[in-house]
Amino acid sequence: MSNPIRRPGHDAEEWVDHAPGDETGAGDWIASYLMGLGFAGALTVASFWAATAHPIWGPALPVALVVLAIAQMGVHLVFFLHVTTGPDNTNNVLALAFGILVVALVVLGSIWIMAHLNGNMMPMDQMIQMQP
Fold first, then answer.
1. Which of 28, 39, 3, 31 is nearest to 18 (CA)?
2. Do the domain assignments include residue 32?
3. How far is CA 78 from CA 7, 83, 92, 112, in A?
4. 3-state DSSP: the chain helix, strand, coil percent, rounded to 5?
5. Residue span of the structural domain in which 106 resides
6. Where are the beta strands (DSSP E) in 7-54?
7. Are residues 25 and 47 in the same domain?
8. What is the pLDDT along the chain (132 residues), one digit of tens a residue?
9. How many folded domains does the chain comprise?
10. How many CB atoms within 10 Å of residue 43?
11. Are 122 and 76 within one domain?
């Protein structure tokens, strides 16, 4: 639950709710950074604990680590990069979506190319035998 803050130009009784990372006062952004640091540290410790203590069923461990990694990315985006869903952050959200699209295309395209190369290349032992 976020604390309401008073926006410049608003009356004292008029409070506006805000997202984490959308603070205006010095004490607000320090508290936001410390909260983000706490969440990021807790997610890092949880990832190491899940990988080493084996509290999760073995085949589900990669899925759990991916979920924790995505949560970690969300914490960094909100608390440190200040990417929120406010109207003044539309360009940031669109740039983030475009970056995710480009990374997805590069990764999926590389996997697709490597899979086709693997299926269409001659096995290595036959290539060695063909050399003069």
1. 3
2. yes
3. 20, 5, 11, 33
4. 70, 0, 30
5. 96-132
6. none
7. yes
8. 445 555 555 555 455 556 665 666 667 778 888 999 999 999 999 999 999 998 888 899 999 999 999 999 999 988 888 887 777 788 888 888 999 999 999 999 999 999 998 888 888 888 788 776
9. 2
10. 20
11. no
